[in-house]
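User: Let's play a game. I give you a shape written as tokens, and you guess the letters that built it. Ready? Here's round one.
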């Protein structure tokens, strides 16, 4: 029963993650720059979390330097992600985002000295090759959109590597991490776009509020799910994002569904399901 609840939480969290991407794309179409979107998003997250952080006294940290680094990287990854979302179809963006684990695997090996099995490497390379094969390189707009999302995933992998380091070494509270993550990102991006600040319309203010709320709900869903089941079991359900983004792309942005994307998605899912079973088999041998 716990695994079912965890799976449902991941499906719900993935939905909120996709709605965030949709809102970011709409805001980009409304003329907001990527850094203005980062500024609005982080401000709303801070505003929503602040009462909880004060009540639970989670505003103390001894690793401000790492949080500043995370905040700076977060600004970069969201900016590149927004640029990609504005140029490439949502379904393609979802597929490219699945390359994230490949870079997390690489950085974990280099910086955290974690053990990386041959099976994990093989699965990651198949995922990367599959995504690379379905990009339309003749369409310059889509090609650059895909490159932007890929850069965002590389930076995101760096953030996740730092997160792993913080959790394993400093035992920092998760809500403290996400709070300072957004505080420093907001401070950095505000300094960079001070001259380009514009007051949003009422409609756009509501969109920014939805963006901030979605970020919090996504985090809460995943946090609760990870307490109920193993990450290896839950990882497969994250691929529901491809379905969500394909539907949003068709309904909201009139994007066509490509059979190549569906085939690529099936290859990625099958590869990762096989990885889970092979890893379990290796764990039993050990």
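Assistant: Ready! My guess for every position:
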């Amino acid at each position: 029963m716990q695994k079912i609840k965890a799976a449902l939480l991941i499906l719900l969290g993935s939905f909120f993650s996709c709605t965030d991407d949709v809102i970011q794309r709409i805001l980009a179409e409304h003329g907001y720059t990527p850094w203005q979107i980062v500024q609005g998003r982080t401000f709303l997250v801070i505003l929503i979390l602040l009462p909880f952080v004060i009540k639970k006294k989670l505003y103390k940290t001894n690793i401000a330097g790492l949080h500043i680094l995370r905040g700076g990287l977060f600004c970069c990854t969201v900016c590149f992600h927004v640029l990609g979302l504005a140029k490439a179809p949502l379904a393609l963006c979802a597929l490219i985002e699945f390359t994230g684990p490949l870079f997390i695997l690489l950085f974990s090996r280099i910086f955290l000295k974690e053990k990386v099995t041959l099976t994990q490497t093989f699965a990651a390379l198949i995922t990367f090759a599959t995504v690379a094969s379905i990009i339309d390189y003749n369409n310059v707009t889509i090609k650059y959109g895909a490159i932007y999302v890929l850069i965002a995933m590389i930076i995101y992998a760096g953030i996740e590597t730092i997160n792993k380091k913080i959790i394993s070494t400093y035992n920092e509270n998760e809500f403290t991490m996400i709070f300072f993550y957004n505080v420093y990102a907001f401070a950095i991006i505000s300094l960079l776009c001070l001259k380009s600040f514009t007051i949003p319309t009422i409609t756009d203010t509501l969109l920014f509020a939805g963006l901030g709320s979605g970020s919090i709900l996504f985090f809460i869903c995943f946090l609760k799910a990870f307490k109920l089941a193993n990450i290896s079991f839950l990882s497969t359900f994250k691929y529901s994002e491809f379905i969500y983004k394909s539907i949003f792309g068709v309904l909201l942005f009139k994007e066509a569904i490509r059979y190549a994307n569906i085939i690529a998605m099936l290859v990625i899912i099958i590869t990762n399901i096989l990885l889970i079973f092979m890893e379990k088999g290796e764990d039993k041998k050990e």
